[in-house]
């Protein structure tokens, strides 16, 4: 059932077994699963069925750390997430990939690493998450996708660098796709325009969620169990702003809420020339695949390859995860196509470096890299408040020279391996190439917009952009001095509060987060279905 909060009476109290704050990928998946399992569920969503400027403005906040840049432009806190039903999936790119085995392991060279659960613990949940994300299944082996789609595998695979496959669900706005299910469920009430401003608690137990509407109503939700699923930044903000039981914030006995804010470091990273013709490399662009089974049969999603450092290499070389994607184009006969700028000399130099052989395919190199966890990279509260008097979020995102060094060495490793296999040559210039977002994915074109030449390249200061992936702010750890939630995603020290979303990731890894967020939400649904009947209010 979908209900507008402003249609309820002032001071109305909503009762249910489980109350979820936030209707994005995590909240919607969890709510529908719990309701299907027989629970009475309230889903409190700040936004409505579409964009609303006053609601979106609640996401405004201070960004005092590294600039949040994408394609060279800087964005603000209210531009990197969306605040209506479906949350930021209303414009995510749909790239799905599971976390890798190395992500779950403790790595001694990192200050903080390791999950309290194993890679294999998530296998059954990835299998279920595929349908929720509207992709074929949880098969991500490039070899299997080669068989299924006929797309040739990339021309390199060894113990250091190997292809990985993405399934791409696009568009896949969770609010729209599951709106009818949310409306039809008799056990589920989705309250729209319900802004949760405080979780009332006595230091050990949450008693209610306090709700405000932009029209001035005050409501409350009471439940056996509460789940905060409001996104990687807001999850921390809401805990920090909920100070009834602890002035430093709910679940914040060890000053960890909001710390370890982690992004995926993204950069256009140079260009390369492959020996193989474009037709053989089409897997880097990807193809459409039709889903043949399940509730989304008939829908189409994408599949494409990238190259990645293997888990084995990341572990043995004491480094962090890194993936490289390619936007391909033909080099026309004669001189390379050049829309303007300095590209010809660069490409010419590369051509002559390739031992007289005439390679036929040029590629932009785009890198996505894991960031080391850093306790000083964090979400806190701003001195400015929103219209409800709730302090706005203050983001102090930090990355370190070690992160840039890892990007550079990871890219060099990929380039060396591709070169050693005789598959091509790369010119690595992280942050130096800026491909226009609208154009760079068009097959057959090779458009270039250089922002710096290799000579100007600064190995310690090259620009690093964001992936829009907000992780680890309530990280998972068995020991309450190392993380905010336990292995079941329950907040340490609070007996009826759980967290959902990428804030619970113990490390960020390099895989795109949402498929993993959905898998963890399904795991949490199973857990709550078994424990909530035993909780007493
Ligand atoms: C441009 C872009 C591209 C992306 N592409 C990808 C991709 O290809 N692959 C990938 O894996 N990820 C991608 N992402 C990230 C992806 O969108 C997020 O990982 C995902 O949406 C997180 O889901 P969530 O449910 O945790 O949070 P959200 O989707 O952010 O949902 C949170 C919900 O909580 C609600 N809310 C917030 N505060 C409150 C409150 N106080 N009270 C009530 N409700 C509240 C919000 O309105 C929202 O609906 C992309 C993001 C962006 C911006």
Describe this protein's structure.
The chain has 537 residues and is of the alpha/beta class. The chain has a single domain (2-534), classed as FAD/NAD(P)-binding domain, CATH 3.50.50. It is built from twelve helices and 22 strands. It has helices at 25-36, 53-56, 101-104, 123-132, 142-149, 174-177, 179-184, 234-241, 311-316, 343-353, 401-420, 514-531; strands at residues 2-4, 13-21, 41-45, 62-63, 68-70, 73-75, 95-96, 161-168, 188-192, 195-201, 206-212, 218-228, 265-274, 287-290, 300-309, 322-330, 361-369, 378-385, 391-396, 424-428, 465-466, 497-499. The chain binds flavin-adenine dinucleotide. Flavin-adenine dinucleotide binds next to helix 1, strand 3, strand 10, helix 8 and helix 12.
């Amino acid at each position: 059932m979908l209900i507008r909060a402003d249609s309820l009476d002032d001071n109305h109290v909503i009762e249910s077994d489980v109350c979820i704050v936030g209707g994005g990928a995590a909240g919607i998946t969890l709510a529908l699963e719990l309701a299907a399992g027989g629970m009475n569920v309230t889903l409190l969503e700040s936004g409505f069925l579409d964009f609303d400027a006053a609601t979106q403005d609640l996401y405004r906040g201070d960004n005092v750390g590294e600039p949040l840049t994408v394609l060279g432009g800087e964005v603000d806190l209210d531009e990197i997430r969306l605040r209506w039903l479906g949350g930021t999936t209303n414009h995510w790119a749909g790239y799905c990939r599971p976390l890798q085995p190395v992500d779950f392991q403790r790595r001694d060279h990192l200050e903080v690493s390791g999950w309290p659960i194993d890679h294999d613990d998530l296998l059954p949940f990835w299998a279920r998450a595929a349908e929720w994300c509207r992709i074929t299944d949880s098969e991500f082996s490039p070899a299997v996708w080669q068989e299924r789609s006929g797309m040739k595998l990339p021309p390199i695979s060894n113990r250091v660098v190997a292809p990985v496959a993405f399934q791409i669900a696009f568009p896949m706005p969770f609010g729209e796709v599951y709106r009818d299910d949310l409306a039809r469920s008799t056990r589920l009430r989705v309250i729209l325009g319900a802004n949760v401003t405080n979780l009332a608690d006595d230091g050990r137990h949450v008693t209610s969620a306090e709700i405000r509407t932009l029209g001035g109503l005050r409501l409350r939700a009471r439940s056996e169990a509460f789940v905060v699923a409001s996104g990687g930044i807001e999850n921390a903000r809401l805990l920090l702003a909920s100070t009834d039981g602890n002035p430093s914030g709910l679940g914040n006995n060890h000053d960890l809420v909001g710390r370890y804010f982690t992004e995926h470091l993204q950069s256009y990273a140079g260009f390369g020339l492959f020996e193989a013709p474009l037709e053989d490399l089409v897997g880097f662009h990807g193809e459409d695949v039709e889903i043949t089974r399940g509730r989304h049969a008939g829908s189409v999603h994408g599949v494409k390859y990238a190259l990645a450092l293997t888990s084995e290499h990341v572990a043995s070389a004491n480094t962090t995860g890194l993936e490289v994607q390619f936007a391909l184009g033909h080099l026309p006969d004669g001189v390379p196509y050049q829309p303007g700028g300095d590209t010809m000399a660069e490409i010419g130099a590369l051509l002559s470096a390739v031992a007289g052989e005439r390679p036929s395919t040029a590629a932009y190199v785009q890198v996505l890299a894991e960031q080391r966890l850093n306790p000083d990279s964090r979400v806190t509260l701003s001195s400015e408040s929103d219209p409800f008097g709730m302090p706005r979020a203050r983001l102090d995102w930090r990355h370190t020279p070690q992160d840039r060094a890892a990007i550079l060495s990871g890219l060099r490793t990929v380039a060396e391996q591709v070169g050693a296999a005789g598959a091509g040559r790369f010119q690595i210039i992280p942050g130096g190439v800026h491909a226009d977002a609208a154009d760079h994915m068009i097959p057959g074109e090779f458009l270039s917009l250089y922002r710096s030449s290799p000579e100007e390249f600064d190995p310690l200061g090259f620009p690093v952009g964001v992936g829009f992936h907000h992780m680890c702010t309530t990280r998972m750890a068995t020991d309450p001095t190392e993380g905010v939630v336990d292995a079941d995603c329950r907040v340490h020290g609070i007996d009826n509060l759980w967290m959902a979303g990428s804030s619970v990731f113990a490390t960020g890894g390099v895989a795109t987060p949402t498929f993993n967020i959905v898998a963890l939400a399904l795991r949490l649904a199973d857990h709550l279905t078994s424990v909530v009947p035993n909780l007493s209010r």
